[in-house]
Automatic annotation (TrEMBL):
InterPro entries: Epimerase_deHydtase (IPR001509), Heptose_epim (IPR011912), NAD(P)-bd_dom_sf (IPR036291). It comes from the Bacteria. Residues 3-236 form the NAD-dependent epimerase/dehydratase domain. This is ADP-L-glycero-D-manno-heptose 6-epimerase. Coiled coil: none annotated. The lineage of its organism: Bacteria, Pseudomonadati, Aquificota, Aquificia, Aquificales.
Length: 308
């Protein structure tokens, strides 16, 4: 199996790369990344080839298409800082580049598994359903919605090519540290606690998110690889948990007492409550999450403490 992972130096992409290497030792895995938010340290232990380049570059895609042949493409490269407001940049990197990916996939007759986002839902009433209302609050969410529409049209036009889109909810786990301020709240709060600082939350910490552990996200990607299915699916746990609960769990696990500092949310495009309806992914891919928030944090802390 020959696999291309765009965004493979990033959090999710590097975990997929390493998992593929373990599960399919005879596969040839290639990473394409421009290292804008990814990090080489995520790829320590990865034995495949790395192509350094920008997914917006049409000439690069022409060369890759001619030079290589892939059976599967995991497309994870994107601007992942959801606070970026440069609309043109966000649309070019996330949405327009997707057309290059699709053209390459078509020429190779490869399977495509790409990253969309729960950002497509905005503040619609939870739980969020794939076929429900889509009202992104920011240009990041909009760029992912445009990707989903491009993918849907592609699936209709080329039904023989399998395409799976994943609307990830809030992913946390090993490999996210290099995302800086875009890393999960679990990582941000963990860092504050171990530094002896007070965690800072938007007033009053009751905003809820569907936090999904990286090992469950990798599991979903592996299921998509194995199954002969096309479609767009939510990837979450099906449960929403508050930021205050994260502080409670981490304080308990780390035996650190703390008081939260609450401050006003500076964004007018903030998602207040996300919760995935995971009925569809259960039905079509046989996916169920293995980790509750408590279990995921416990597992993650083992990895984080070994890095201290
Ligand atoms: N982590 C989450 O909670 C989450 C939630 C929803 C959706 N997603 C999506 O999942 C995918 C992976 O996210 P992540 O959390 O691993 O983020 P990440 O920032 O760690 O990974 C993105 C990778 O893409 C690369 N990249 C960015 N622009 C590029 C370009 N123009 N050309 C080539 N490479 C480029 C970056 O260097 C980075 O390695 C993204 O598409 C993201 O939108 C993630």
């Amino acid at each position: 199996m020959r696999v291309l992972i765009t965004g493979g130096a990033g959090f999710i992409g590097s975990n997929i790369a390493k998992s593929l290497q373990e599960r399919y030792p005879s596969s040839k895995v290639y990473v394409l990344d421009d290292f804008s938010s990814g990090h080489f340290k995520n790829l320590l232990g990865f034995k495949g080839e790395v192509i350094t380049g920008d997914i917006r570059d049409a000439e690069l895609w022409d060369w890759i298409t001619k030079e290589y042949e892939f059976d599967v493409v995991f497309h994870k490269a994107a601007i992942t800082d959801t606070t970026i407001t440069d609309q043109r940049l966000m649309m070019e990197v996330n949405a327009e580049s997707f057309r290059h990916v699709l053209r390459a996939v078509l020429s190779w007759k490869a399977k495509l598994i790409y990253a969309s986002s729960a950002g497509v839902y905005g503040n619609v009433p939870p739980p969020m359903r794939e076929e429900g209302e889509l009202k992104p609050e920011n240009i990041y969410g909009f760029s992912k919605l445009v990707m989903d529409r491009i993918a849907t049209n592609f699936m209709e036009k080329y039904p023989h090519i399998k395409v799976v889109g994943f609307r990830y909810f809030n992913v946390y786990g090993q490999g996210e540290a290099y995302k800086g301020k875009s890393a999960s709240m679990i990582y941000q709060i963990y860092k504050k606690l171990v530094l002896g600082e007070r965690p800072r939350l938007f007033k009053w910490g009751e905003q809820k998110r569907d936090f999904v552990y990286i090992k469950d996200v990798v599991k979903a990607n592996m299921l998509a690889l194995e199954k002969d299915v096309s479609g767009i699916f939510n990837v979450g746990t099906g449960t929403a948990r508050s930021f205050n609960e994260i502080v409670e769990i981490l304080s308990r696990e780390l035996s650190i007492k703390t008081e939260v500092e609450y401050f006003d949310c500076p964004y007018d495009f903030y998602q207040k409550y996300t919760q995935a309806d995971i009925t569809r992914i259960k039905e079509y891919l046989g996916y169920t999450p293995d980790y509750t928030l408590e279990e995921g944090i416990k597992d993650y802390l083992k990895e984080l403490s070994s890095c201290l």
